[in-house]
Design a protein that fits this description.
single chain, about 150 residues, mainly alpha, about 0% strand
């Protein structure tokens, strides 16, 4: 496993977490009309059936979200460890991009740098990560990352 594999996994976990949170919010928005009055107590397609389907779907999404959040936390720890030796700007940019899913222009705005400075810092960080041998990456991974990775497999 390379350092960039870990970085990519962290960015994906960040995106997946945001996607699941959005799905839950959308589901809650749709459910606002589910528990209304009327509809009777029996029969198929009633409010009770719709509420049960809503609860089942929400429970499934919450379970997936909790699992994804654990994975994201482990990935973030791994990225923080792997980027700790980088100079300040590449380290900040790599962490913001891979751990928090920010775009380069967003990082530039937040950190008060030009877009080109952030793109260069990300390129420098990626180049440095590419130089870390896979065996060294494996040894540097925190225990929580290894544990969560085993749970995924």
């Amino acid at each position: 496993m390379t350092a960039m594999d870990v970085m990519a996994a962290c960015r994906r976990a960040c995106q997946n977490t945001a996607r699941l949170e959005s799905m839950i919010d959308d589901l809650d928005d749709c459910a606002t009309g589910v528990g209304g009055t009327g509809g009777g107590t029996g029969g198929s397609g009633g409010a009770g059936d719709r509420m049960a389907a809503y609860m089942a779907r929400k429970d499934e999404l919450l379970r997936r979200l909790n699992k994804e959040r654990r994975w994201l936390a482990a990935c973030r720890q791994a990225v923080i460890l792997l980027t700790s030796a980088l100079p300040a700007l590449p380290r900040t940019c790599m962490r913001a991009f891979y751990c928090y899913g920010k775009s380069a222009p967003h990082i530039a705005r937040d950190e008060h740098y030009s877009d080109s400075s952030v793109y260069k810092a990300l390129a420098a960080g990626r180049a440095a990560m590419a130089l870390i041998p896979a065996a060294e990456v494996e040894n540097a991974l925190p225990a929580c990352y290894r544990r969560e990775m085993e749970d995924l497999c």
